[in-house]
Each structure stands twice: as structure tokens, then as C-alpha cells.
Amino acid sequence: MEVRDVELLEKHLPHDENLKALWDEHILFEKQLDQLESKKILTPQERVSLRELKKQKLDGKTKIQIMLDRYRELEM
Asked: Is 18 exposed, middle or buried (0-12, 13-18, 19+ CB in 10 A)?
């Protein structure tokens, strides 16, 4: 994530509950992915979970980016 995105996040997280929820979810998915990716061998179910988590994380990141783009437009 770019520095300006992080700055926008820090600025708006305290008062935007939706953005905060998305960000918290993003961090949770990141931790779960790190845990799965640290394993040398994954079970078939873990591989499915890994793919699902990656999709969910990407979807959430897209939503966060849309919200940050709106904030950026409002600040212009």
C-alpha cells in the first residue's frame, strides 16, 4: 500500500466505521494467510482455504481502495 493511502487510512479510520471494519478484516486475512503460507505442506482443505482467503483479502482491498479514492476526491 502506498504511503499516501496509509496516511488517508490513518486520517479516516477513527471516524469511518465501515473503513475500520474493512481494514480490521484485511489485517485478519493477512495474518491467516501468513499462517497458512508458513506451512511447508498444505492439506487439500488448507489449499482451498488459502485461495478463499486470498480472494476475500483482494475483495476487501478493492473496497478499501474505492473508499480511499472517494476521500481523495473530497479533499481536492
From this structure: exposed
